[in-house]
Amino acid sequence: MRFKIPLLFSIISSFLILSGCSGKVNNSVTIQNLSAGTVYFNFRGNVITALTGATASVSEIPKGTYLYSTTYNVPAEALSSASQGDVKGTLTIAAGTRIMIIYSSTLISGAYILYASVSSSDSQTTTTSP
């Protein structure tokens, strides 16, 4: 009986330690495209495509600071185009960071404008637009 209690304690503590450190990174960036055209989110050497009305995500992002930029399709009826807001910049990813980027647009008198807005679950500022 003397050896069963330390052995049981050892097994339980090993399980708790291993289950607490899963090794999986729980950081993500979600792109929600409410604009009139397809949006292409350029991030970490990849292009994430978000069709009009769709949402796309990137998950398991290691902690760090990353540059991003946005390219987009302009509707055929637009005579000119521009972008405003957080269409490019730097994202700082810490442990458990969830970032949402929402794209929207307007088309007024032939001028198409794409807007981007970034929000984060972190309390610190996570985006810097150049």
- CATH class designation: Mainly Beta
Task: Please give the radius of gyration in angstroms.
Answer: 22 Å
Instruction: Give the fraction of residues assigned to helices.
Output: 10-25%
- Terminal-residue CA separation: 67 Å
Largest sheet features: 5 strands, mixed
Report the structural category: mainly beta
Number of domains: 1
> Would you list the SSEs in sequence order as H and E?
HEEEEEEEEEE
What's the number of helices? 1
What fold name stands as the CATH topology?
Immunoglobulin-like
Question: What is the β-strand count?
Answer: 10
Quaternary structure classification: single chain
Which of globular, elongated, flat, extended, rod-shaped describes the shape? elongated
Can you tell me the residue ranges where pLDDT is under 50 for at least 5 consecutive residues?
Answer: 15-20, 125-130
Q: Could you report the average pLDDT, rounded to the nearest whole number?
A: 84
Q: What is the CATH-assigned architecture?
A: Sandwich
Work out the strand percent: over 45%
Strand order of the largest sheet: 4-1-8-9-6
Jot down its keywords.
five-stranded mixed sheet; Immunoglobulin-like; elongated; mainly beta; 130 residues
Note down, in words, how this protein is organized.
The protein is mainly beta. It has one domain (24-128): Immunoglobulin-like (Sandwich). The chain is built from 1 helix and 10 strands. It has one helix at residues 4-20, and strands at 28-33, 39-43, 46-50, 55-59, 64-72, 80-85, 89-93, 98-108, 111-120, 127-128. The strands form 2 sheets. A 5-stranded mixed sheet has the order 4-1-8-9-6, with no helix packed on it. A 5-stranded antiparallel sheet has the order 3-2-5-7-10, with no helix packed on it. A hairpin with a 2-residue loop joins strand 8 and strand 9. It is elongated, with a radius of gyration of 22 Å. The termini are far apart. The model is unreliable at 15-20 and 125-130 (pLDDT under 50).
